[in-house]
Amino acid sequence: MKAIRDGTVYTMAGPPIENGTVLISGGKITAVGGPELPVPAEAQCINAAGCWVTPGFIDAHSHLALWGEPEMKATSDENEMTDPITPHVRARDGINPNDIAIPKVRVAGFTAVYTGPGSGNVIGGLGACIKLRGVTADEMIIPGTEQMKMALGENPKRVYGEKNKFPMTRMGTAAILRQTLSRARRYAEKLADAEKDPAKAPEPDFLLESLVPVVRGETRARIHCHRADDIATAIRICEEFGLTYSLEHVTEGWKVAGLLAEKQVECVLGPLLLGPVKQEVWDYRLENAAILQKEGVRFSLMADRAG
Question: How crowded is residue 44: how many other Cβ atoms within 10 Å of its Cβ?
Fold first, then answer.
């Protein structure tokens, strides 16, 4: 057993506890309290005087263990950029539990991250929330956290435009996304019909099968969008197909804060230290989060890094 003593304890479920005590046994927190909390005689005591003691941080959007460290082709497994529609690829099959960045992220105070495919494709595949321990991806993944990555804006149109392939424009990106979701919805309807009449079962389609939980609202879509018009497009498409979704980055969210609040959109903001790396982030503002908070928008923060 370990006891962390005399620090300022932030439980995230109440006010800070000055000179607090946290008891840990078997790798789990067993008790939290003030200086009056009894500490077993056999406990290894850690003096946290002058320190904050917090639960493990969670990075809500990263590419840790997929876009490996150091960044090079040999370690890069986050974007299957051979087709704009790849919902059937899974982070589970690319996560490297031995990525050298994982111990460094743990030391920084993070015990879990959401990691997943990048934004090179319009539909990039399934990501998941992982604990930063374990020797296999299956051990690391928190059950029930797999979510589908989608992307609007510059990235997919640049990736496929440079190959002279569809989509080359924002119009094309929205069109292929809507087309694919429409096909998936029809496939899901046929599967439902087949439950009553097996003769109506559709031909198996591995790609569409991956999107059935998405169009049924059972699996969340996480949609990469920076510019205000891309944010509006994401909301429009999600409402058209009844998706459960969050918006990722939302760099120009401050321009449409009222819309995000009205639609009760959940956002994952960041990264917070952006340079002018592409046109869609030129209107980045550090006060974006403060503006959205004032409007009542629910959001979390991301690092959007691989380490």
Answer: 9
Helix (H/G/I), strand (E/B), else coil: 257? helix
- CA 225 – CA 32 distance, rounded (Å): 40
Helix, strand, or coil here: 84?
Answer: coil
Residue 122 contacts residue 173 (beta carbons within 8 Å): yes
Q: What's 191-207 look like in SS3? A: HHHHHHCHHHCCCCCHH
On average, the pLDDT of the chain sits at 96
In the three-class reduction of DSSP (H, G, I as helix; E, B as strand; rest coil), residue 240 is classed as: helix
Which tokens go with 245?
A: 């979704």
Question: How does residue 206 score in pLDDT terms, banded at 50, 70 and 90?
Answer: very high
pLDDT in tens, 219-234: 999 999 999 999 999 9
Q: Is the pLDDT of residue 306 over 80?
A: no
* Ramachandran category for residue 2: left, alpha or beta (phi over 0 → left; psi -120 to 50 → alpha): beta
Cβ neighbours of residue 237 closer than 8 Å, sequence gap 6 or more: 174, 177, 178, 181, 243
Neighbours of 112 (CB within 10 A): 19
Query: Contact at 8 Å (CB) between 291 and 254?
Result: yes
Contacts of 92 (CB under 8 A, 6+ apart): 126, 128, 137, 138, 141, 146
pTM over 0.90? The answer is: yes
Tell me whether residue 108 is exposed, middle or buried, using C-beta atoms within 10 angstroms of its C-beta: 0 to 12, 13 to 18, 19 or more: exposed
Catalogue all structural domains in the chain, each as residue range(s) with its CATH number.
2-53 (2.30.40.10), 56-307 (3.20.20.140)
Mean of the pLDDT values across residues 34-63?
Answer: 96
